[in-house]
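FORM 12-B: Structure-to-Sequence Request
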């Protein structure tokens, strides 16, 4: 993204760093706990989400151009490989994106930032599918 000064700004910088990402992750999992369409997706996660939230926060921070703590701790993201044990089809992808969109709307005040994040996450979410439509 390009800031007011015309310089390139990472999404991480654009939205304000780690604190907004932490709020985004909390809101995302709150959505997963409450949105009926996400019931099956939520069931794929442990009941205690503390570690899951921590890891997603690290991942999103790095993915948005922030610190590389995720890779330093866990190695290359290999997201698809890490999710192969879960059945992810169109319904799961759509539920994940719905929860993320609602969480972004709730926590990221800047519309351009929300749009940029969701626009970049949508193809990633689609890439995670490992079940054919049918």
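FORM 12-B RESPONSE
SEQUENCE OUT:
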């Amino acid at each position: 993204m390009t800031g007011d000064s015309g310089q390139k700004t990472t999404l991480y910088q654009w939205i304000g760093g780690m604190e907004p990402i932490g709020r985004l992750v909390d809101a995302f999992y709150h959505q997963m706990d409450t949105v009926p369409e996400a019931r099956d997706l939520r069931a794929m996660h442990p009941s205690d989400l503390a570690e899951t939230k921590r890891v997603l926060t690290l991942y999103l921070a790095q993915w948005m151009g922030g610190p590389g703590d995720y890779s330093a701790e866990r190695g290359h993201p290999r997201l698809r490989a890490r999710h192969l044990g879960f059945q992810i089809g169109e319904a799961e992808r759509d539920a994940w994106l719905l929860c993320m969109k609602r969480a972004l709307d709730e926590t990221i005040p800047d519309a351009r930032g929300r749009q940029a994040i969701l626009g970049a996450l949508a193809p990633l979410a689609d890439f995670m599918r490992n079940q054919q439509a049918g």
